[in-house]
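Progress against Task 2.4 (sequence-to-structure conversion) is shown through the following example record, which the project officer requested during the mid-term review.
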Amino acid sequence: MTERALAGSRIRQRRIAQGLKQAELAAHVGISASYLNLIEHNRRRIGGKLLTALAERLEVEPSLLAEGAERAVIARLSDVAERLGESADTGEAADFAARFPGWANLMIRAGRRVDELERNVETLTDRLTHDPHLAATLHEVLSTVTAIRSTASILNETKEIEPEWRDRFHRNMSEDAGRLAEGAQALVGFLDGAGDAQSEIGSPQEEVAAFLSAHGWHFPALEEDREGAGQDYVNGAPQLKSASARSIALKVLDCYAEDARKMPLDAARKAVEAQGPDPLALAQHFGADLAAVMRRLASLPESEAVRGLGLVVCDASGTMLLRKPAEGFAVPRFGAACPLWPLFSALNRPMVPLCERVMQPGRAGEEVHFEAYAVAQAVLGEGYNAAPLYEATMLIVPADPADEGGRARPIGASCRICPRQDCAARREPSIITQAL
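C-alpha cells generated for the chain above:
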C-alpha cells in the first residue's frame, strides 16, 4: 500500500462501497457530477467545506479522505491500540486504514468515545463531591427523615395523648412525608440526569464550554469576519440557557473574531505547518500577543500539524474561565485543578512566557506527556494608576516521550482523582488510592 494514496481515489472507493452514484453524491454536496468525476480521478484538489460535506455524506472522518492525512490517521489508530494495551505496528495500521477506511473511522471514533466516557466518570466524581444541589437535597432528605422519626417516636412511646395533639402530630408527619417525597424525587432526577455528564450544567462557564464543544471550537462565519456572526451563533444556541452564559459566549466569540483578524486561517495554517505549534515563534511571526496565539491554535481545525490541542484560561484567583480538554489531558469540571500546572506558575511571573514538559497518569499506569505553554497577561484596568488584573492562558500540546529533551514534571488533574500519593501539593486524599 502506498502511504500517499490520493484523496480522490479514497472518495471513489468510499462512494462505491456505499452504492452511491456520482450524480447522487454530487447533488448532495452541491457540485456537478463532472466536477466530482475530476475529483475522483485526482485531477482536482479538495479541501475545506467541500471535503467536510463529502466526508459527512460518506459517513467518514474528513481526515480519512484528506490528502496527506494518512500519517495522522495511522497515528490515531496506533494511539487507540496502545491505550487498549495492544502493540501497534505502523505498517499494519496503514494497511488497515487503506483497505478498510470505514472500520478505521469506527475505531478512531470508538477510541474518542472511550476518552469521553473516562472524562464523564471524572466529571461525575467531581459532581458527587462538590455539587451544591446534591448536598442541599441530601441534607433536606436526612432532616425530613429525622423529623418523621421523632414524631413517630413520640406517638409510639406516649401511651395517653390528647386527640388535639395526636391530630397535630399526624398532620406534621403528613407534611414531612410530603417534603420527603419531593426531596427524594429531586434526588432521583439529579442522579438520572447525572448519566449525561453534560446535563445539569452548573454554571454559565459550563454552558459556554458545552456551546464551544458543540461547534468544535471553530466558527467558519467568524473566519469570514461576517458582521453580526457572533450574535447569530449565540441566538438560539440550546447550550446557552442563561443570560449570563450568552453574554460570556458573545465575549468569547468577539475575542475569537479579533484573533482571526490578526491571524487569518490560511496564513495561520501555513505558519503552523512551517514552524509547528510554537506560540512564541508564531507570536513573533504575526506580531500578536501570546495569549491570542494560544487561543488561535486551539480553535484551528484539526490537521496533521494541529491535533489534540487543549486550552485552559484562568483569572488571578485560579478560577478556570475557559477550558478545552486535550486528548489524554484530564481537566476537572468541578473543583480546583492541580496546583502544579504551569498555568498557575505563570500567575507568579506575569508577562514571562513559560514552557514545560509535563506528564499525567494514563489509563494502564503509563505516563502521557505534553508540552505546556503558559503566560499571564494583564487585562485592561479601570483607569490610571489602577492595579492590573491578570489572566493566565495555557496551551496543551501532546508530546512524544521519545522526543523528550529533559525530565517531564509529574502533574495531575485534581487531588480528588490523582493516584500520586507522594505529592507535596496534595490537598486531600485521592479516592483512587483509597479504593486501592
